[in-house]
Amino acid sequence: MADCAYWEYQISLALDGELDPDGGDRLTRHLGECPRCRSVREAFEKSAQAIRTWPIRTLWPD
Ligand SMILES: [Zn+2]
């Protein structure tokens, strides 16, 4: 079985746009055969959206 901790790290890199195309291909292949990592990616995507929509100006107003 593949090392899913490694793939979770690759997923976080991919969401940050820091994964090279070759790594992206291998990640896509792993996601195709690993439901666990697909759900991890969904959770990461949700949390990434939460960070993007964080009301940062309420923390540091002008
Ligand atoms: Zn996996």
Concise synopsis of the structure shown:
This protein has 62 residues and is mostly helical.
Strand proportion: under 5%
SSE order, one letter for each helix or strand: HHHH
Largest sheet: none
Low-confidence stretches: none
> Termini distance?
51 Å
Please estimate the helix content.
over 70%
Bound molecules: zinc ion
Plain-language structure description:
The chain has about 60 residues and is an all-alpha fold. The chain has a domain at about 1-15 and about 25-55. Helix content is about 75%, strand content about 0%. The protein contains four helices and no strands. It has helices at about 5-15, 20-35, 35-50, 55-60. Helix 1 crosses helix 2, helix 1 runs parallel beside helix 3 (about 35-50) and helix 2 (about 20-35) crosses helix 3 (about 35-50). The longest helix is centred in the last third of the chain and has 18 residues, at about 35-50. The model has no long low-confidence stretch (mean pLDDT about 85). The site of zinc ion (ZN) has 7 residues, from helix 1 and helix 3.
